Amino acid sequence: MTHAIRTLPATGLVRLTSILGPHGPIPVSKSTWWAGVKSGRYPKPVRLGARITAWRVEDIRALVERGAQ
Hints:
By secondary structure, the chain is of the alpha+beta class. It has one domain. Helices cover about 40% and strands about 15% of the residues. The chain is built from four helices and three strands, in the order αβααββα. It has helices spanning about 5, 15-20, 30-40, 55-65, and strands at about 15, 45-50, 50-55. The longest helix has 10 residues, at about 30-40. The radius of gyration is 11 Å and the shape is globular.
């Protein structure tokens, strides 16, 4: 297990800066991430406000475990 995945909380929500590299477990750019969300390759976000989105930690952990990066 990589250091980045170990630093994620066990449950809850995380913002995009905690998901994408260099500090997060998914080494892709923002534009690649959003294209993947649109196509269904990456999980859909949870809208917390007009300009705030987050992702379920469980969804991100499952993504990393199946190696879909």
